[in-house]
Structures are given as C-alpha cells and as structure tokens.
Amino acid sequence: MEPTLRMATNLDIETLVCIRLDFLAEVHKEKWKAAPELHAVIEESFRAYCVKHLEKELFVALIEKEGKILSLAFLSIQDKPANLKSPTGKLGLITNVYTHSEYRKQGHAVRALKHLIEEAQRQNVSSIKLAATKAGEPVYRKLGFQENDPAGLVEMELSFVDSFAE
Questions:
Q1: 97 — phi, psi (to 5°)?
Q2: How far apart are CA 128 and CA 29, in angstroms?
C-alpha cells in the first residue's frame, strides 16, 4: 500500500503537537535538553496556535500509511505590507519538515513540500522562506529554494526567549 498525502485538519492537532515536540527534541537536541522549563510552554503555545490557525494560515501536508504519519511539513502564511519582493503582501514560511528516521530517503518530505508549494501558489503567496538544516539543504535547493539576499539588508532578530527561563 502506497503512502497517501493529505492536509491536516483540526482532528490532527494532538498528533501535530506530538510530532512537533519530537522534531524539536531531535533537531535541537542540546538546546531542548537544556531548557526543560520551556517544553510545557511550547506544547501549550503550539496547540493554541494550531487551534487558531490550522486550515486558515497554517497548512500541514501529511504523508501517512495505515494511519501512521511518516512525514510532514508546515506552511504558515503571514500578511505583511506589500513591497517589491512581496507584491501580494503574503509570505510563506516552511517549518517543521520532518520524516521519522525509518522512512527517510524515500521522497516523502519532497512530496509534502511540493504539495505545500502548490498550496502557497493557490493562496497567492509572493515567496516562501525557510531555514534549512545541513541535511535538508540539498532537498530545498532541488525544489528551487535559494539563499536569500534581502537587497543589501542585514536580517536581525531580538529574542525574548531567555525571559521564559526565569
């Protein structure tokens, strides 16, 4: 039986929460172990995010076989002021591309990503961003993703994460 592709619904939220936590624990091993006080905050916040945004601004492509999720990928869509790089003002963000270890190297993540790229086009998104791991970078390049050069701008961030640890 061939694995099937489908989009997540509200009935999948608890499964999405579990897989998200597995993803964070695997991809960010040391940071995850070092911040156990954030686990419950992340779990609760992510569940609330899914309830509010799933099937609206959050789209999750699932690859499953016999009721088991083998692979998934998230696309969140953000509205921003329109500009030359984003004339529609809609930006996509791919996150949480994850395949359980025993199902890797079988094309499941690529299949999920291609579906999300098509969804982004249906949603009139101007561009899609992501942050690639070393393992995922060749997959994303194969799908047409390129390193982002924000027109001579320096991408910066102000983080409040440390305030949660207190």
A1: -75, 115
A2: 26
Contact status, residue 116 vs residue 73, Cβ threshold 8 Å: yes
pTM (2 d.p.): 0.87
CB 70 within 8 A of CB 97: no
Structure tokens at 73: 């990928």
SS3 state of residue 19: helix
3-state secondary structure of 31: helix
> d(Cα 92, Cα 69) in Å, to the nearest integer?
23
**Residue 16 φ then ψ, to 5°:** -60, -40
CB 63 within 8 A of CB 74: no
Average pLDDT over every residue of 129-155: 82
Query: What are the residues facing 128 on neighbouring strands?
Result: 92
Which tokens belong to 123? 């949603």
Which one-letter DSSP state was computed for residue 54?
Answer: B
Residue with tokens 């994460």: 161
Q: What is the tens place of the pLDDT at every residue in 83-119? A: 888 899 999 999 999 999 999 999 999 999 999 999 9
90-99 β-sheet, strand order: 4-7, 58-65, 68-79, 90-99, 127-129
Distance between start and end Cα atoms, the chain? 50
